[in-house]
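Weekly structure sync, notes
Attendees: PL (lead), two postdocs, one rotation student
Agenda item 3: pending single-chain targets
PL asked that the sequence for the first pending target be pasted directly into the notes so everyone works from the same version. It is reproduced below exactly as submitted, 1222 residues in total.
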Amino acid sequence: MTVHRAVSGPSPRPLFMTTSFRARSFPRSPVSPGLLLASAVLLWLGSVTGCARSEAPPPPIEAKVEGHWLQPLAHGSQMVPCGHGHHAWVWSPNRAGFWLVDAEGRESVIEGLGDKNFWVVNVVPTANPERAWVVVQVPSDYKSSTVLLLVDHQRRLEVPEVSVPDMSLVPSEGRERLWVVSDFNLQQLLVVDDAGEVTPVRLGTAWITSRKVMPVAGGQQGWLVLDQSLLHVDSRAGAQPLSRPLPVQNVWALLPTRQPHRAWVLADLPGRTGPQFFLASREVMKATPLLGNVQRLFAHRDANLAWVLLSPGPSVGPSPASELKLVGLDGKTVGPGVTVEGSPAVERSPDGHLWVSDERRVYLLGEGGDEVARSADAEGLGRAELYPVSAERAWAVTEEGGVRLLSVKGQVITSGDQAVTGLHEPRLMALDAHGGWALSDGGTRLHRLTLGPVGLRAMQVLEGAGLNDVFPLKGTGRAWVTGIPRGSLYGPASDVGRVRVGFAGGSHIERDAKGNVLVEGRLEAGAPLESLELDWPGLAQAAGAGRTLRLELRAEEGKGALVGQGVRRLAEPSGVLFQWTEPPGSAEHLYRTVVAHEVENGTRLTATFQHVPFGVPLLDRVWVRTALACLAVTLLLLLPVLLLRPSAVTRRWLPLAGYVVTGVGAGGGELLGLLGGLRIHLPTVLAVTCAELVLCAGLGLLSPAVFRRLVFTHPFSWAAAPLLRSPSFRRRFFATHVRQVRRRVDVASAQANGEVFVELSSHVTEYAGPGVAPSASERTAEELCGLLTRERAHLLIQCAGGRGKSALLRRLVRLSLEHFEKQPSSPLPVFIDPAAEDLETAAKEALQDLGLPEALRDALLESGDFFLVLDGLTESKLEPEALRRYLEREMGLHAPVLLSARPNEAYRTAMAHALRWMAVEPKRLDAAGLERFQAAYPGPDGKPVPLSESLQRICRGRAADGTYVPLLVRLALRFGGGGVDSVINLYRAVFAGLLKKAPDDAETSELLGFAEALCLGSYWRHRSRLIVFRDSPDEAKLRMLLDAGLLVAADARPGPVPTHVRFFHDSMQSYLTARALYAQYASQARWDCLWRAAGEPGFAREQSDLMTEAGSELFQMCSYVFGYDARLKAELMRHLEQCAEANDERLNKEGILAAVPEELRPVLRKSGRVLSPGLLLSEAGRVCAEHPDGDALFLLYARMAPLAWPWKPEEESPARSQEDAA
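Predicted structure, written out during the meeting:
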């Protein structure tokens, strides 16, 4: 059905939202030709089953709108309606400003009352519907004043102000006039009419306090109740406005008659006992006694009649009976009256009829003094609070909290099904032609009571602590609601304009403001939603509030299953807001379309379309569904594995969820016949699912790459841990890791100038834990590897630089790889980044390349499948405390460490926290070891090249035991040609040899100067062995040194362009730094840099025995570069003398004695008994300087500088420096 509608006139801007095109398009995914062929066959087989379409004409579409809308007012928390009820005066107590609001919620300020010095206190509407008396307070620093003004709908009227301090304002019944009466000093009263004219009435000086004021006769006359009297006032009487006072006490009730000068009175009279009922008159001003035993008075529609409640007589029941009688002016009763139980509540309807509730029931009294109707006792209306509407209806609030609408049927009052329960402490606030308004829960919830086809129902409108009152707008169904901090305009759902629901393809369904339903295009189930609009009067004002639109589609047959739903918060960007939750079926269906709109201000609107026909898409067939289901199952495995991050929860659980749903849901549905409506061939889907599971599992077993993809996905991840325990799979999976580690070790050996490992025994000290004495032994590399991989002992290779720590470490790594290839259960090495500060974290990061989940990597580490390797512990950022924490953790008990470090007591102390560890110290080369080294580095002819005596002397350093430093031997074998007569010349020859240049070549000298400056800026200034390579301004020169082999990559994960580099050996950097220092300080009188090179902790912890048996490597290089001569010794002696003088209290004798060579200690120990530590150090310097072994002074200096640090030699004035130089 297609209906075109005409649009006429402007309409408010609709509230709408749209879905993106992405929500309306189908994703495309490449598939294999085999899958396409299988899908084509399934499509052909399924084409014979079509979807039947019902041709029966649908019933006409119906639409209805329910709910309400609210529009917050901009100003004011209190209001009073005007006389005609279409406008209201709005203000906030004790605040400036006075406004007029209309039925549309539009507010306009009243001119003349916008001044901040005017505070509105009270508003009293006049008989003129467009005017009101306004009481305002004018603040003042001395004393605020209160005045009475007259305003209309636009402005303050130009009439005289009336000062009304501490006065009561009492309007007449028709609000023609306003009586202004003082509460304390009643000398005169004022009568103000709706034109602003003020008539003063002088009362004399004897009247002090008024108790009650009752204007009558349109406000021209009135009754005054004073402390001890009652009198009548006539403002037109001129000089005699007052009647003669009637002495009375405690006026309990005062009702005027049709004659303004006569009134019914219930009061205490002097000399009488109990309240007296009488008729008072101005003419004679006397009390005409009437009936006795009157307790209360109630007005009758005819003012010349009055209802009286007579005192109960003797009664034996719990609730004594009372009588209600109608009395005339003659004092006689009219009609039989009615007998009630207890103290009744009497209310008068707008048309003048009396409704009465007593202890058990409700009564309706007639105009003739008789009972018209009563409720049955079973109704439970005893003590109900009544709100009469007319002679036929009244609202009642029962003691149980129920609200009922009572109706009179014959002589019976009944509520039938017109009742609402469940409200807590309800209180009716206002009534109109459409229902009523009730506050509940202590005045915090406002409900709208309406009459409908199913009876009385309550709908919550607002909730808050500041709700005050409700003022219905006559004939509109709207109402003003007052509250704190501001009021609101309430509107019914009948005010809703256009409601429109649009789907893809241009089809839509619409309800206009008159309730007509229009459908354009063909509505199809499964079509994406394009637009949703709902127009209502307060839409423009609610633009800034939080708004929500909801759409639901429910089937009309059966239980009304939900087939489609959408939610969109209009404060958010547009996006997908609707989805179909049920398949479209095989034929056209009738749906119930519900559009719900919610706003933060309390607006709740619901538009419902009944009998909306939705057709079935043409391609909705069994073979299409089956092919799509198979494709979805396939993509459910492939897409998460290929597109999602490994850590994504959806990647782990989505395939498993899909398989479980497919297997359990499809299999169970096929057996029970529950999924027939899907129109999918479920056995085919199950077969495809099982085949994919088997295929993926098989590929994962054969291919580690596929396994790494599947290991992040359940259920395959659950089989990962057992598989990694299988020797064959373990060998196949970790083959890549083995190749990477072996290549890294080979590259490191190649970068170490073609390092070849020579098998030498090492001195090993085993520490088996507390209480077990250390045991020393000699071990080969093969034995050390067995201790590491089979017995899981921690190894610390610790010795001075140049001994072959790194070579032994790389040999142990190679042996562990060979053990793994033979026995896959053996642990594998994992290299740790030297920049890491925590071993456990660094180990986890190093294993990220395995492509396994984090939990599985942690499990492999804690189960001992790996051991950690760190070359250069003392040069790394790993602190001894971090090493101790690792050894004490669970991972440290199962994953051993293989470390190499220079001598450092702090790291040995940290290793003591391990249950079992080995201290490994590679030995210096003896004569046999030298021969094996020479055989390992043959000459061009393949034969060993023996070292000359000069080179052997250089390789021994200053050792007296005839052993050789392995590093110097390796360098001498490769670069020790003619002309090399010292260690510094050997290092210069190495520098030139790696560059393949002559030592005296200009380019060599240039690069040597560059390298010296580089070392001075990195190692000397920042104690850093690392040098920034990438993006360095000197990258070209650094590339030359890198290509030559002087520099090597220092990244934990080397790439094509390294981020950091370092020298192939730390001693080369120390040598170049010493050269740079000599170039800088050679011409100066003081060589204070030597003290820093020997004593600063950053240098002192890098011990070496290239020249002496102890001392920092940098200081030893400086001792060679600066020249082994008298000036150097003099500078060392000067530093020691200054240290002795400045640190006499800091130094201790035992430390000084331990710093000198062992053969000199006995002599110094004798003399030290009478010397202070400072004098002992001076004496030790003198003795070492005179000792035949020239290294004694260097050894003392190298050992004392770290002990005295951070003390430094004192700076001297330039004059003294020049004098010393001369």
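Discussion points:
- The longest strand covers residues 62-72.
- The chain has 31 helices and 60 strands.
Action: rotation student to compare against the earlier draft before next sync.
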